[in-house]
Amino acid sequence: MSGPESSGFAAALARLPSVQKSARGAPAYSRFVNRRAGGILAAGAYHLGLSPNVVTAVSAVCTFAGVATIALVEPAPLVGLLVCAALVLGYALDSADGQLARLRGGGSPAGEWLDHVVDAAKLSALHLAVLVAGYRFFDLPAGHLLVPIGFTVVAAVLFFGMTLNDQLRRVHGARRAESARPSVVRSLLVVPTDYGVLCLAFLLYGFRDVFAVTYGLLFLANLAFLLMALPKWFTDMAGLAPAGGGNDGTGRT
């Protein structure tokens, strides 16, 4: 079908299920809330004729507005609400750009690069903003500032590890075993590692002690997940067939 009907919002929304990536391994918020919100935004962007890169750029603006607010504005309930809204919208748009690309027939290497760079920047910037806010606005022992520093490292390694796993599987032609229906139980179990849950935690930002405890618990959950995931990921990568010539330990094959 061509013409206005095929580019309409409802038509685009109806097409989304047929072009979606698998939900395997996705935490509950990302799977059940963010993907659906992103789908609505993707359908709207498709109807308006926007490119995925434009949606990525708008996502970055929303996210970094929230990040800047964390670092610069003293915590208060309204501030927490605004930060949460900016981060949640930015995350939904981050899902929308990929869905929009698939609606348009597939993304480009440049678009994928841009998306990953923005994701990497926002993860580090968010936790560093919490570090700045902790120093400026929170009456906590100095040792508590180690939490956002640790969270920065954990978030960076998790993001890099997951991204590299997917890229290496793609290079080596390996596919993950897909179940007919991704596990809902697993999605719920890993929900503390969900970036969307971290965004929602800023609803508590105006209640400083409650936010500090919540943020600390999320850090511990992400750290525990990383420590359990790294050995499995290494084993998975060790099982991939060499691309030829072996690896000299420098990343070159």
Break the fold down into its secondary structure elements and pairings.
Layout: H1 9-19, H2 28-48, H3 52-72, H4 77-103, H5 109-137, H6 146-171, H7 184-189, H8 195-201, H9 208-238
Helix pairs in contact: 1-2, 2-4, 3-4, 3-5, 4-8, 5-6, 6-9
Helix segment count? 9
Number of domains: 1
Question: Mean of residue pLDDT?
Answer: 88
Helical residue percent? over 70%
CATH architecture: Up-down Bundle
Which structural category do the helix and sheet elements fall into? mainly alpha
Instruction: Spell the H/E element sequence.
Output: HHHHHHHHH
What's the β-strand tally?
Answer: 0
End-to-end distance: 46 Å
CATH class: Mainly Alpha
Query: What's the CATH superfamily, by name?
Result: CDP-alcohol phosphotransferase transmembrane (TM) domain
Runs in which pLDDT lies below 50 for 5 or more consecutive residues are 1-5
Query: Strand portion, in percent?
Result: under 5%
Rg (CA only): 20 Å
Describe this structure in words.
The chain has 253 residues and is mostly helical. The chain has one domain (22-174, 184-238): Up-down Bundle (Four Helix Bundle (Hemerythrin (Met), subunit A)), CATH 1.20.120. The protein is 71% helix and 0% strand. The protein contains nine helices and no strands. The protein has helices at 9-19, 28-48, 52-72, 77-103, 109-137, 146-171, 184-189, 195-201, 208-238. Helix 3 runs parallel beside helix 5 and helix 4 (77-103) runs antiparallel to helix 8 (195-201). The longest helix has 31 residues, at 208-238. The chain is globular, with a radius of gyration of 20 Å. Mean pLDDT is 88; it is low at 1-5. It comes from Amycolatopsis arida. Belongs to the CDP-alcohol phosphatidyltransferase class-I family. The chain crosses the membrane at residues 78-96, 144-164, 184-205, 211-230. Pfam families: CDP-OH_P_transf.
